[in-house]
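Predicting holo structure, flavin-adenine dinucleotide bound.
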Amino acid sequence: MKPAPFDYEAPTTIADALKLLGGHEDARPIAGGQSLVPMLAFRLARPSLLVDLNRIPSLAGIEEKGGVLRIGAMTRQAAVLASDTVKHHAPLLIQALENVGHPPTRARGTIGGSCAHADPAAELPSAMVALDATMVIAASGGERRVPADDFFIGAFETVLQTGEILVALELPKQTGGSAFLEVSARKGDFGIVTVAARIAVKDGRCTDAALVLGGITERSVRCAQAEHILKEQGATPKAIDVALAALPLDTVTMDSRLASAAYRRRLIPELCRRAIEAATTSKVAL
Ligand SMILES: Cc1cc2nc3c(=O)[nH]c(=O)nc-3n(C[C@H](O)[C@H](O)[C@H](O)COP(=O)(O)OP(=O)(O)OC[C@H]3O[C@@H](n4cnc5c(N)ncnc54)[C@H](O)[C@@H]3O)c2cc1C
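Done. Tokens:
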């Protein structure tokens, strides 16, 4: 099938892009096109105007300032994966990206595009939640900042309103070691179940813990109770067992021909155990 007809504009500033998006009811931004182009081809999306963000230089780039890493939404996934700054500041993002698609899709696909698309099985939303990222959104009325955990609402649904652009992601310096594990049908496929873990241990105490599941329901799920247990009791083998017993298995609703909900529930505890142990002993611990 071919896409339905659409107009095309390629502005060079955020202000012009916002003007174009705000001036058409069903205009849509296009970033790397790795999800949107297939959606156009299958006529799952039929915008009257595509606003190409690729010619806006201020939307791309990686910058560390005052302990905060700012990644422009249009930064290619491959550029983030190759960045030493990201490797040092937010290794969990690198670990997650290694599971996203393939070199050709990462060469075009952007960090912001993956987050704006909000596929429930995508790796980056869970990584952003586990890293306590802040999503920077531009609208004609100004900018607003939204914590990643509030940004993702449901399957293919975020707080982004029509006419808004995700301009950047801001990450505090990662505390603790981390691991990103997933089970997928093939290397490079979306996850059936994904786990992002970040565990900080100091003087034998667990000072911070983040455990986020993906692929199990409409959006990433933060395992708040398990995190609390790890912080209270430490990341000891006994505490890990207690934390695993508190995983939110009842939130699993994803049930498909590829993997039943029951299978996903069986995967979660073992995947979490491995992720917590790997994060606790991670050589990238900061
Ligand atoms: C073969 C293949 C395998 C893949 N495997 C995986 C995988 O394993 N894991 C995974 O997570 N993804 C996977 N993907 C998807 C890939 O990661 C996409 O890059 C990503 O989903 C979308 O990013 P994009 O830059 O291409 O966005 P686009 O496709 O251009 O846009 C996606 C959506 O986001 C909106 N959008 C984009 N940028 C912005 C912005 N800055 N502000 C507001 N809205 C915006 C668009 O309007 C559109 O609705 C795969 C894709 C392919 C083709």
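The mean pLDDT is 96.
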